[in-house]
Amino acid sequence: MSVQNVLKLIKDNNIEWVDFRFVDLLGRAHHISLPAAEVDEATFENGVAFDGSSITGFRGIEESDMVMMPDTESVFIDPFTAHPTLNIMCNIHTPDGERYDRDPRSIAQKAEEYLQKSGVGTAAYFAPESEFFIFDDVRFETGINKSYFEVDSEEAFWNTARKEEGGNLGFKVRQKGGYVPVQPVDTQQDIRSEMCRLLMESGLRIERHHHEVATAGQGEINFRFDTLTKTADNLMKYKYIVHNTARQYGKVATFMPKPLFGDNGSGMHVHQSIFNGDTPLFYEKGGYANLSDLAMYYIGGILHHAPALIAITNPSTNSFKRLVPGYEAPVNLVFSKGNRSAAIRIPVAAVTPKGCRIEFRTPDSTANPYLAFAAMLLAGLDGIKNKLDPRALGYGPFDKNIYELSDAEKAEIRSVPGTLDEALDALEADHAFLTESGVFSEDFIKNYIELKRAEAKSVSIRIHPHEYSLYFDC
């Protein structure tokens, strides 16, 4: 969309405010709103200034001036503001006009540019399946003398005897029993449909929505794939609309990977493929799951670099509460067709040549999508460059239930890192595939690891309530 078309959109829709947004290292969106009357062609040419020193992981106070440069392809009308508002995603530049090397959105764009320069293909397509919970109430506190969390949901199995409902209506979702039940068990059909309506109005092509496996309001909405940066933009839009629609219903949505103990967590399974123009490069009839050698090498790159990659695709301490055996958790660094216990699954049901793709099941939505998609693409391209065949490297295929293998067989399978610190150790030792191309800088990697180690330490030094159960009577 041209600048002139954006200005016309503002005029035709009586827009009062233009909201300029960017994403920080942690994947949180930030915004500054300008009166629509103050937005003209010069705004798009010169950008919008902001203080980078107030954003975690960006700049020091001595070099804090930064500029948001709006991307006219990312506009959508905000469905939640009382005053008509147009939202625009931005890249971050330094005052001298250079792309900021810690800007996640710029990193995503550089990854796409690297793909084109590599000669492998012209575009990489991504489609994340980002799961979430919708709760009725959430409370948490951590302090010197207390630490707890408590969440609640009208459909949770632990509320079969609750009296506060004014007459308990039953039909609760059993633990691990929430996969696609109809109403009245599924209490959130209407709220998910409203989310989808708003998502479609904002430009996303919605494919389906449904209740997910866990009790207490786990859901999933799938939207159509797109190119790397556009998909990351769409995921930010998706999370924004899910969060705010839940709030309008008096509820709260979270993409936290493991908010409940003993039930399935929320993942972000990422489908991905590479095209050369209109030609799908992952398809070859007769290959394993109809995959081409190029697709196999791509899989090899992801699995080979997975321990380091997971520091970016699963960047929270809570991520590793989900990545444990059971609960459909993809903890095994292998690939398979149709097997959901493998880190990489190749969908085979109703797949056309253009729909041929791989699904990396390990990521979750604490990941910054711009960084996660860029890192996955670079790992896959490194596999193609070095012809890392996952079959020769012992990564499968494994087409049986991995959880039912013998201990000796399981010992032959690599697993994901067990903690965030282990993943960060792997990233520290293995990141040339990210920096060799110039997409990620050494400064970015060092800064990212420092931020995430500080997060991990802040959790590890705190007293856990379960420790009282284990040790208080010693």
Automatic annotation (TrEMBL):
- An example Pfam family from this entry, by short name, is Gln-synt_N
Record has Nucleus as a keyword: no
What are the residue boundaries of the GS catalytic domain, all occurrences included?
104-474
- Does the record bear Protein transport in its keywords? no
Q: Supply the alphabetized keyword list.
A: ATP-binding, Cytoplasm, Ligase, Nucleotide-binding
Domain GS beta-grasp residue range list = 13-97
Q: What is this protein called?
A: Glutamine synthetase
> What is the name of the gene encoding this protein?
glnA
